[in-house]
Write a structure and sequence with these properties.
The complex is a heterodimer of chains A (160) and B (104). By secondary structure, chain A is mainly α. Chain A has a domain of 108 residues. Chain A contains 7 helices and no strands. The longest helix of chain A is centred in the C-terminal third of the chain and has 24 residues. Chain A is elongated, with a radius of gyration of 29 Å. Chain B is mainly alpha-helical and 104 residues long. Chain B has one domain. Helices cover 93% and strands 0% of the residues of chain B. Classes of the chains: A mainly alpha (160), B mainly alpha (104). The interface between A and B is large, with 41 and 40 residues.
C-alpha cells in the first residue's frame, strides 16, 4: 500500500499519461460543437425581392394617402380600405416565410390600429374625420422611418 | 494524426478573430443608429411640445406623436435583432469557408 502511495506522490500528473488524449478530445469536442452550430441552418430568412418591392411600394402608397387626411375621411374610406387590404396581404406573405419573426412583428406594429404608426393614423383620421396638417407631416415622418426599418432589414438579409 | 490536429487547431484559432471583426462592426453600427435615434426624438419632442403650448396641435395628436416614438423604437429593436441573426449567419458562413479552405 505504501508503494502505491509513493507512486501517487511521485506522479505529479495524476492523469497518468492521459494529457495528450484529453487535449485531442478537447479539440474534437470543439470541432463537434462547431459542426452542430453550422448544422442548425440559417437563423433568419433570406432576402426576398418581392417582399422588398412590396414594402417600398406600400410606403409610397401610404404617404400619398396620408396627405389626404386634411379632407374628410368619408371621402377616402375606400382608398384606406384598399391600402389596408394590401398591407394585410403583405403581412400574410411575411408570415408564410420561415424564420421571419422580426419582419412579421414589424408589420404588425406598423398596421396595428391600437398603436401609433400607420394603423393608428388611419384610425384617428376615421374617428376625427380630419386631422391637422402639422400632424400629417409629423406622422408621415414616423411612418417613413417605420417602413425604412422594414426595408433596411430586408435589404441586408443574406442572398442565396 | 498530427496534421489533422494542427489543421483543427488552426481553424479554432481563427474563429476568435473572425467573431471579433463581425461583432465590432455590428456594435459600431448599432451604437451609431441608437445615438441618431435619441437625437431625433429629442428634437421632435421639443418641436411638438412647442406646437402644443401654442395651441397649434390638439392633445390627442400630440399624444399620438409621442407614442409613435415608442412604436418606432420597437421597430428599430426588431431590426437590430434581425441584424444580430444575420451576423450569426455570416459568422457561420465564415466558419464554413475556413474549414473548407483548411481541408483543401
Amino acid at each position: 500500500m505504501y508503494s502505491n502511495l509513493k507512486f501517487l506522490k511521485r506522479s505529479k500528473d495524476f492523469n497518468f499519461g492521459l494529457k495528450p488524449f484529453m487535449k485531442k478530445s478537447k479539440f474534437v469536442l470543439i470541432a463537434a460543437a462547431v459542426l452542430c452550430f453550422l448544422a442548425c441552418g440559417a437563423s433568419i430568412s433570406l432576402h426576398d425581392h418581392y417582399a422588398y418591392t412590396q414594402a417600398t411600394s406600400l410606403k409610397v402608397d401610404s404617404l400619398k394617402l396620408m396627405d389626404k387626411a386634411v379632407e374628410d375621411y368619408s371621402m377616402h374610406e375606400d382608398e384606406v380600405d384598399d391600402l389596408l387590404t394590401k398591407i394585410e396581404k403583405a403581412h400574410e406573405y411575411e408570415k408564410a416565410r420561415p424564420k421571419n419573426d422580426e419582419t412579421i412583428k414589424q408589420w404588425e406594429i406598423l398596421k396595428d390600429p391600437d398603436k401609433d404608426l400607420l394603423g393608428g393614423f388611419f384610425k384617428m383620421w376615421k374617428e376625427k374625420g380630419k386631422v391637422s396638417q402639422f400632424f400629417i407631416e409629423e406622422k408621415k415622418k414616423q411612418v417613413v422611418k417605420a417602413f425604412d426599418e422594414i426595408i433596411e432589414l430586408e435589404s441586408v438579409k443574406l442572398r442565396e | 494524426m498530427p496534421d489533422f490536429d494542427e489543421k483543427l487547431k488552426d481553424i479554432i484559432d481563427q474563429l476568435g478573430p473572425l467573431a471579433k471583426v463581425l461583432v465590432k462592426d455590428y456594435m459600431e453600427d448599432a451604437t451609431e443608429d441608437g445615438k441618431e435615434f435619441i437625437n431625433e426624438i429629442r428634437d421632435d419632442l421639443k418641436r411638438w411640445t412647442e406646437m402644443l403650448t401654442k395651441g397649434k396641435i390638439p392633445e390627442d395628436e400630440f399624444a399620438s406623436l409621442v407614442k409613435g416614438t415608442k412604436d418606432l423604437a420597437e421597430m428599430k429593436l426588431l431590426k437590430q435583432k434581425g441584424l444580430t441573426k444575420i451576423k450569426i449567419d455570416q459568422f457561420k458562413g465564415g466558419v464554413t469557408s475556413l474549414i473548407v479552405n483548411s481541408i483543401l
